[in-house]
Amino acid sequence: MGREEEAETQTSICKDAPNLLSFFVDTFVDFSVSGLFLLPTPPSLPPLPTRLPSPSRLIAVGDLHGDLDKTKQALRLAGLIDASDRYVGGSATVVQVGDVLDRGGDELKILYFLEKLKREAARSGGKIITMNGNHEIMNIEGDFRFVTKTALDEFRVWEQWFSVGNKMKGLCQGLETPTDPFKGVPMSFHGVKREFFDGFRARVAALRPNGPISSRFLSQNVTVLVVGDSLFVHGGLLPQHVDYGLERINEEVRDWINGSSGKFSPQYCRGRNAVVWLRKFSNEVAQNCDCATLEHVLKTVPGAKRMIMGHTIQTAGINGACENRAIRIDVGMSRGCGGGLPEVLEISKNSGLRILTSNPLYQNMGNAGLNVGKEELLIPAHGGLREVEVKA
């Protein structure tokens, strides 16, 4: 190598030093917070389409609420991760219907873990899609009614490492001075004990619109999604939501999370009839569901045969109402929601549906069918898994 080439190489290395330092700092902070080494953040990708074709295998996972152990149990139940927590689901598409936040203390760890799996799945031709639930919307707006003390501690620790990372970046002249995420965040909070002020400040800074955590993780979420003949939403959709436009809803919520439209979410995300709050189709008593409205909504979404929802805990496990046009998958698996046994919904290419569960109630039933209700699912159990065949 000649002197000119050597000098050019040294110049290139020095030129790249700020970016290398930034990557090192980000990796250091990520590991300190989550215990995970994440690959470099991929270049900005276009938003996920609102409508996706039917995959060969589709898995739906309900509300997680800050419980990392139950999250991993559910994913293992579906054969998506191995004993070392690596993604092994191949080309499957996985939809998590929201409510990662609140009621538990592993919120950030779950967000990081799902981010890791998203990248691993993409390398295998798979997809892991996360959605907004009412608790994501609440936290971005600063509504912390369901936050636990351990969750505040988790965010306080995040703030400490994030601040260290920003100071490290500030030492390099080639790096842009990081934005202070605490700018405008109050030092105290009315009605909150002083001992929790630091955790509250960290949570506000991290999760408010355009905050470091909301913009990095939650802005990737969709609010409504159509995969093949299945319509996914956290709470439920009404005719006016479909008329407003599913793509428009996703775009506006994404823009709000990224800080373009103030503190509060769009109106269709607030109130009892909001897309993330609606319970008209998820009442545990099937006959109390508004099946006529559900049928109208499905007819206005081309190709949709069913609506798959979380939000309302189903103590009997995943089940269907309205002739299985409403599939309810929130089983309250988080320890903060009663500690229900994990269950996941699997949809095959030919629209066959089944429930996978570790519920011991179904372990010794052989191949016997179990009719669990006129409008619920026909359950033949096999070898410890509750497998539910649902007619399309």
Automatic annotation (TrEMBL):
Protein name in UniProt: Calcineurin-like phosphoesterase domain-containing protein
Species whose genome carries this gene? Arachis hypogaea
Q: Organism's domain of life?
A: Eukaryota
The protein's matches in InterPro entries, at most eight in alphabetical order, are given as: Calcineurin-like_PHP (IPR004843), Metallo-depent_PP-like (IPR029052), MPP_Shelphs (IPR041787)
Residue stretches making up the Calcineurin-like phosphoesterase domain: 57-260
Molecular function, one GO term: hydrolase activity
